[in-house]
Design a protein that fits this description.
241 residues; alpha/beta; six-stranded mixed β-sheet; four-stranded antiparallel β-sheet; globular; binds adenosine-5'-triphosphate; binds magnesium ion; ATP-binding; ABC_transporter-like_CS
């Protein structure tokens, strides 16, 4: 690993600078700073209600910023629609997964072809990465285990060949062993060059594969740094272990 000066000069692929956002009259992000370097994994950690999901939605163009700047590759893109964010290569898996329970695995993949990907390619990639999905191709997604549904959600997201993947609470409702397995896959994707922003309450699951971690409390990022450093700053009950 090299780094330091050269690393600091890299233009972040995705960046929030002093971002404010809220719901109606209530502001919940009070000036959030986050920078996702290309080909890295940034873990956004912190307790319930801190604003992680809201920040992720701002990044995906799903929620407006009322202040500050949202930047993509150094360019200000405030007000971008989710569709245009997707065209820039930003893809998100929302909290609670993103699969259609009443569609089969295959139909779920087909529904991800809207962006121009071919079903055959999506299936090949999905079943190659997760052979169990191939066995379940004609099964309704809603009847599969949480882990299998998350594999499908990930496969759908990757079908669009994103540059940036936003993952919100990948671990939710999954057994620890499955969580580890899913994050191993995410680590492989980062190795292949994908840039990933992960929001997690279950910090222990993601810290080992993160390049950088940010701690979010009450609508502010209060610390950003090396995973070990941030882990040290977190109170035991935020570790989710
Ligand atoms: N749709 C909404 N309408 C009104 N308030 C909301 C809405 N969604 C979230 N909030 C509020 O915004 C604040 C931040 O919530 P957010 O979901 O972004 O936090 P989080 O860090 O993702 O929490 P969790 O760890 O529970 O997922 C909370 O106070 C929450 O109650
Ligand atoms: Mg959340």
């Amino acid at each position: 690993m090299t780094g330091t000066a050269a690393e600091a000069e890299v233009v972040p692929l995705l960046e929030l600078a002093g971002v404010r956002a809220g719901y109606g009259a209530i502001e919940v992000l009070h000036g959030v700073d986050l920078a996702l370097r290309p080909g890295s994994l940034l873990a956004l950690l912190g307790p319930n209600g801190g604003g992680k999901s809201t920040a992720m939605r701002v990044c995906a163009g799903l929620h407006p910023a009322t202040g500050g700047e949202l930047r993509f590759a150094g360019r200000k893109v405030n007000g971008i629609s989710a569709q245009d964010a997707a065209k820039l290569g930003v893809c998100s898996i929302p909290e609670g997964r993103g699969v259609f329970p009443n569609l089969t695995v295959r139909e779920n993949l087909w529904a991800a072809t809207g962006t121009g990907a071919r079903l055959a390619d999506l299936e090949e990639k999905a079943y190659g990465r997760f052979p169990i999905l191939g066995k379940r191709r004609d099964q309704l997604a809603g009847s599969m285990s949480g882990g299998e549904q998350q594999m499908l959600a990930l496969s759908r997201a990757l079908g669009t060949d994103p540059a940036v993947l936003l993952l919100d609470e990948l671990s939710m409702g999954l057994a620890p062993m499955i969580v580890t397995r899913m994050y191993d896959t995410v680590a492989e994707l980062v190795e292949e060059g994908l840039s990933v922003l992960v929001a997690e309450q279950f910090a222990r699951a993601v810290l080992p594969i993160a390049d950088t971690a940010a701690l979010m409390l009450n609508g502010r990022v209060v610390a950003t740094g090396a995973p070990a450093e941030i882990e040290g700053r977190m109170a035991g009950d935020y570790l989710g272990g």
